[in-house]
Write a structure and sequence with these properties.
Helices cover 24% and strands 34% of the residues. The protein contains 9 helices and 20 strands. The radius of gyration is 24 Å and the shape is globular.
């Protein structure tokens, strides 16, 4: 559907290097990376605002690499919204179709359709300076969608919104995607990727260093950067014994599945894979440790509990489990996890 092949561009202190990416129809693809790695530049190249030094862009098997902006069936929504302050919401949404050869009645119908989709029909007569950040974002989305692009490009669409507005806009973006719009969404927030995407790519220093199905990238990061960037906090250097044991700091021994018979490397344990309890459990898990709770950190829908077992492990539990077990700081607890839950990086 959208295929980028070896896209490269060089600026004075920055470059994109041979970026290759492929979106299928109806994908919700999230491009993850820190600020300054080239995510927005890549969107602008796809939209036609910047021309790459080399590489090719195909949309529905048509080469659009050198096409003008107005001749590409893509729509881009910037982080700063870029809506016209002197227009009403209605006029902003209508703008992309204003000079098209369709009747006024059809234009009104389209504006109404996309205002309803983005839940802003009650704002049509207002000017942007009287709108909240979330409302401006919805106006920008409606204005872009009214042209019915084959691919929607989103530049950090949730970055400036509070928690409640983020949740509302996430639901809207899911709905837009479910109605058949393919989306490429750039962000530095891995939680957005988990919540929205079916595929994800991670960028570092102008290159894509891992891409694939979201669950695969998050469960099997290829290196330390991807592991940390996708929210893994339990990340340790280890030596491996011949008996499938990882030894950390010459003292903590963890059972692993060392199928490649490595002598050393790094291990990753996702906090969601660790089970926490007040008492030692009868379990098939090969790793069971007694430890002390050092810190409890509440989040929006779960808790992170830091447990010291000789090394500090981050454990993610649900609000239900927190209420059930009544964990407290400085209390001794037991944690367990399977050897198969551990990812080994050479």
């Amino acid at each position: 559907m959208l295929k980028l092949s070896n896209i490269s561009i060089r600026f004075s202190e920055f470059q994109l290097k041979n970026v290759t990416l492929e979106l299928e129809k109806n994908d919700y693809y999230v491009l993850l990376g820190k600020s300054g790695v080239g995510k927005t530049v890549l969107l602008e190249i796809i939209a036609g605002l910047i021309r790459p030094d080399s590489g090719q862009i195909l949309l529905n098997n048509e080469d659009i690499t050198r096409k003008k902006i107005q001749n590409r069936r893509v729509g881009i929504v910037f982080q700063d919204f870029s809506i016209f302050p002197h227009f009403t919401v209605y006029q902003n949404i209508e703008y992309p179709i204003k000079n098209k050869k369709i009747s006024k009645a059809e234009k009104r119908k389209l504006v109404q359709e996309f205002a309803e989709l983005t839940n802003i029909t009650h704002l049509l007569t207002r000017k942007p300076n009287n709108l909240s950040g979330g409302e401006k974002q919805r106006v920008a989305l409606a204005r872009t969608l009214i042209s019915k692009p084959d691919c929607l490009l989103l530049d950090e669409p949730l970055a400036s919104l509070d928690v409640q507005l983020k949740g509302d806009l996430r639901n809207l973006l899911r709905r837009i995607n479910q109605k058949g719009t393919t989306i490429l969404h750039v962000t530095h927030d891995y939680e957005e990727a988990i919540a929205l995407s079916n595929k994800v790519a991670v960028m570092q220093k102008g290159k894509i260093i891992q891409k694939g199905l979201t669950r695969e990238v998050f469960k099997k990061p290829v290196n330390a950067f991807v592991a940390r960037f996708t929210g893994v906090k339990n990340f340790f250097k280890a030596d491996f014994s011949p008996f499938n044991t990882a030894i950390i700091n010459d003292q903590i021994k963890i059972s692993v599945d060392n199928h490649d018979f490595l002598s050393n490397g790094k291990i990753i344990i996702r906090g969601e894979e660790i089970i926490l309890s007040n008492d030692k459990m009868e379990s098939s898990a090969s790793n069971n440790f007694k430890g002390t709770i050092k810190q409890i950190i509440p989040y929006f829908s779960n808790y992170e509990i830091i447990v010291d077992i000789g090394i500090e492990l981050s454990v993610i539990i649900s609000e239900h489990s927190m209420l059930k077990y009544k964990f407290k700081e400085q209390r001794q607890v037991w944690l367990s996890f399977k050897s198969s839950a551990i990812k080994i990086i050479p």
